[in-house]
Every structure is written in C-alpha cells, then in structure tokens.
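Data deposition worksheet. Section B asks for the primary sequence of the deposited chain exactly as it was used as input, without tags or linkers unless they were present during the calculation. Section C holds the resulting structure in token form. Section D is free text for depositor observations; keep each observation to a single sentence. Incomplete worksheets are returned to the depositor.
Section A, Depositor: J.P.
Section B:
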Amino acid sequence: MTTKFNVAEVERSCAEKYLKALKLPEEITSDMVVEGGRVRLKVFQSVDQYNGMRSAIAWVYKVARVEMPFAQDFGTYIKGITRHVAAAKQHLGLKLMKGEAVMKPEAYELIAEHLFKSGEKRDIFNHLMLLLDWNLMKRSENCLNVKMIHIEFEKDYLKFIFEKEKGKQHGDMHGPWHCFANPEKPHICLVLAFARYICGYRRFYKNANHCFPAPTSILARGRGE
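Section C:
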C-alpha cells in the first residue's frame, strides 16, 4: 500500500503549500521541476482505493481462518492517508475520488437519441441497455441477467422486481422499481425501447424466462453475423 501513488504536475506555489501543510521535510529539487516551471509530486490515491486493498487483504485472512494481526495498524494508516488526501484536494486542486464523473441528464439524452435514431440493429439492444441502467440505477450485470418473470405490466408502468444484487445477496432487496412511459421524449421511453427490442429480436423470446439470454449473440446478430 505504501507504493500506491499517483503522479501529479502542479504549480510550484501549490506544491510548496501542500508540503508545508503536511509538514513534510521533502524539498522541491531540480529533478521534480518539469516544463513550464511546474512541479511533479507523488500523491496518495483516493481513500476508497486503500480501503479496497484493506478489504482484499482481510478477505484472504478470513478465508484462511487466520486472525489478521495488524488490523488496527491498517485503520491508523488509512486515517493518516485521509489527511494527505484532504491536503491534496485543498492545495493542489486534485479530484481524488473513486469512479468517474456523474453523467448529466443532457448527456444521457444525447446518447439515447443517437442510439434511438441509429440504423444499426444492434443499437436497439444498446439503447435498451442504456435506458435500463439509467432507470433502474443498476449495475450492467443486473440488467443483463434480468428475466421476464422480473417484469410486469401494472396500471400504466413497467414493474421490475430483483431478488439479488451485489450488495444484497440474501434477497433482502427494496423495491419494486416502477418505470413509466415517456410519450413526449420517445428516445428515453423505456416501454418503447422494450417494444422495439421484442420486435427486433423475436427469436430470443422462445425461452420466455430470459430477457437477454445471450448478449454476445445479440450483438453478433446486429452486425449481421
């Protein structure tokens, strides 16, 4: 964990404030200075990444049924990292967060409209998967494994029921999820996206239990293979 760093190039004044805030003895040397007078620094990664490493190591000990002797030291080490990460955000202007930036609704609609108007058959599947991920707020794996028995038409909406996901392995899910039609914006209408998929890939509904029985076959079919 002590070797997991990112390299950042920042203004010299920002680097000096960062080092001073952490009371580090390290001075800015000539080999740290890059083009334009900027300074190259090693900074810690996000706290979530280090917590992930700790969880992985703890899991190995758990599987081996051996008590992890340095569990308390891990907590102390990560608590110290938190101070470094906070200083990097404040003085270096770095975004040390896990994951990517949130997709804005405008970007979502733009992508959905492009797939909706595409002449490629495979984009019918791609369009539906995009809308499912967005409306259900689920991991792609959950959407790919959805079964027809998970979907019901009720009143004026589609109802989705999931019994299991990554963070809920024992069927203790909240829900169900209700997805309504959007006649004013057909490119983000999940009901219409399902109708297009059913009409375009009718052969996959011979087994009504699976909504997406073979995603790779669907994509290959869309390419004309």
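Section D:
The radius of gyration is 25 Å.
Residues 61 and 68 are 6 Å apart (CA to CA).
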